[in-house]
Amino acid sequence: MSISRTHHVRSHRQSRWLATGLSTVVLGIAGCGADVTTTAADDGPTDEGYPVTITNCDRELTVDRAPESIVGLMPSQTELLVGLGLADRMVGQAQTGTYALPEEVAEQVADVSELSTDTPPAREELLEAAPDAVVAPTTYEFTGEQGFATLEQLEQAGVTSYVATGGCPERRNTAVVEDLLTDIENLGLIFGADAEAETLAGEVRGRLAAVDEAIDGADQPTVAQLYIEGTSVFAIGAGVEYDIIRRAGGDNVFTPDEDLFEQFFSAAISPEEVAARNPDAIVFTVADDAQEQRVRDYLGRTFPDVTAVAEDRLLAIPASDVFPGALGNVSAVESIAQVLHPDRF
Q1: Closest Cα to residue 80, out of 336, 323, 333?
Q2: DSSP 3-state of 154
Q3: pLDDT at position 218, please?
Q4: First vs last C-alpha separation in the chain
Q5: DSSP letter (8 states) at residue 99
Q6: Do 283 and 213 form a contact (C-beta atoms < 8 A)?
Q7: Which domains does the chain have, with CATH numbers?
Q8: Quick one: which of 156, 164, 101, 79 has its CA closest to 123?
Q9: How buried is residue 244: exposed, middle or buried, by Cβ count under 10 Å (0-12/13-18/19+)?
Q10: Residues 283-331: pLDDT tens digits?
Q11: What is the CA radius of gyration of the chain?
Q12: Tens of pLDDT, residues 250-259
């Protein structure tokens, strides 16, 4: 069985996906937890409703007026900005080669400059676009050692930098799908798009509630979420990836309370470990159809007696759907739930 959307991530993106989480740990920038707050500042607005102060990744961000020159540092964030009605304020989009935007979104940003294709933009390229706000999925996009503009450098340049709640370093292992709602609310406040944020949040809540209603009372198949690179196997046992399985009505065989995932949401494991846990289903992220086939071939060769393989319950999802702060998180919940519980949809 295959779960797909219209966009895919290139193969190298899978390694970057794992590296991103590791980078956020190494960076050591304090993360934001479930108690992310939004508060209106009370020292006199510059524009109507401003200034606004929010807390993001343990940083207090104060915005004096609605930003007018925005860069989405990943396609997932570009999609979210478009969903908030902000396409006409965008001056740049980044990492555009990592996966294609949905057609209706791509049309709205067709004239927006592409600052980078396969990696975040270099510091100079980003600053040359003269943004007054940037939105990123993780703190990896601000790694100075990689030549990217740091949070501090952007602040000095007067740029508001927002990181998806689930991509904050200390939040990465405990992120949940509902963190997307925090991002929608925060971005609505930052950009003065409160009405659009309320509408989008309502749509997200409605889609998640529909899944909850459909699978209510259903048995939970056991699920292993894996990342396969060649013959290397990584288990996913924490973060928004873990919560996506939970929200879809799956019982994760790898859990956040294991020592394996004490510091990082993913861990290298042996094939024997997968066989020992014998999941009913295996979910894995893919870059494209070719990679999906390679992973399926590997799983078939390596785990012929594991229930998931024997019963062909191998579920491929686009890697783009599991990045923090992505509307694709909801799509992943819906798609996985439909395959785990076909009789409920």
Answers
A1: 323
A2: helix
A3: 98
A4: 16
A5: S
A6: no
A7: 22-203 (3.40.50.1980), 213-344 (3.40.50.1980)
A8: 156
A9: buried
A10: 999 878 899 999 999 999 999 999 999 999 999 998 889 999 999 999 9
A11: 20
A12: 999 999 999 9
